[in-house]
Amino acid sequence: MAYSGLSSLRVYPTRAGRDVAGQLNKTPGQTEEAWLEVLALAPGADTPGMRAQFVCHWNYAEFAEPGKSSWNLEVWRPTVDENTMVVSGCNPGGAEEAF
Fold this sequence. Notes:
Mean pLDDT: 90
Order of helices and strands: EEEHHHEH
C-alpha cells in the first residue's frame, strides 16, 4: 500500500490478536509472537522503526481506538523513543494516512 507515494504496511489483527492486545497484562512473549506473525507475512517490515510502531499499536490501539480496522506501519517514519511514539498516536513524523 502507498501513502503519498510512500510505502505503508497495513496489519489487520485477528480477533485473537485483538483480544490479547486489549489486555493490560500482556507478556513480552506474546508481543514477540505477534510480531513474528507479521514478519512471516511481511519480512521487509523487520526494521526497528516498524517494530516500534507495531508494539505501540499492540500496546495501545485497542484502548485508544477499539476495533480499528488496521494498524498501519511505515518504514519512512522516524525511529523515536517510546514516549514520543505514544504521544504521536503510534505515527511519528506525520499524521496517519487516510485511504
